[in-house]
Amino acid sequence: MGSKKKKVFIVYFSPAGSTRHVAEVMEKKFLAFGAEVSSFNLAECSSNDVAMTISRQMEASNGNSCLFIGSPVYVSHAVPIVMDCIAKLKENTGAFAVPFVIWGGACSGISLHEMGKELINKRFTLLGAAKILAVHSLMWQLEDPLGKGHPDAEDDRMVEELVKHINQKLHEDNLKGIKLPDLAYQTKENHAEMVKISLQSAKAHMPERTIDTELCNQCQVCLDVCPADAVTFTPYPEFGDGCVFCLNCMKKCPEQAIHADLSEIWQRIRDRAAFFSERPGSQIFY
Questions:
Q1: Residues 195, 133: Cα–Cα separation, whole Å
Q2: Average pLDDT of 260-265?
Q3: Are 167 and 35 in contact (CB under 8 A)?
Q4: Is 0.85 surpassed by the pTM of this model?
Q5: CA 154 to chain centre
């Protein structure tokens, strides 16, 4: 690889802000190492445009670049927009990749494995990976949410350690990546069950959101904060099929006009956390 300045791409989707936080820690550390960094928030630009842009630049870098791509974990999986971005990347660019996921303490699922598998299918070499614990995004109303206080300073230190090791690898002539089985840390039985479920199927069991038309003044804040562009007004908010159920619309409504009973969801999340008892909370692979 020589001493040529390294090009790093950081792509992420972050409805609750935790994945963005981790991406920013990565960017800051890489800049300190003198890398050239470009960051893309998939809530602000299309996955197709991002994939085309970085694929073109990775080809031009002639194997001198690395893609970090991050997603929150929803129902054991990376979110569809992140997987779609990976699917649209050009094959055989000679680049390296590091998938990372943020999970809320219930179960990190098979998200890292499925992201790693798709990246390998695109002929990327996996240099590392990470799962980082964060407060569960659906428990913002509770005093004791799963993942409370995370990502914390120790999580950030772990992310910085990953960046340090990846940066060192990028300056080596004979790079050794990680293997896909390293990211298959669920039991075979649980992995097989997780393959069968999806965010789309899980949404059918989510509580219905209702709009208090006495409170809603059609300010369209919910439309502005929706990372999936899934809100329309007719004349009050409606939620389309692209909704990922992050509930930013409900969290950030200034009039508190959007309601949903989350009590059953909270219990299911806690039951899931107790069943899997996944440890450690945060982990890096390199």
A1: 22
A2: 95
A3: yes
A4: yes
A5: 19
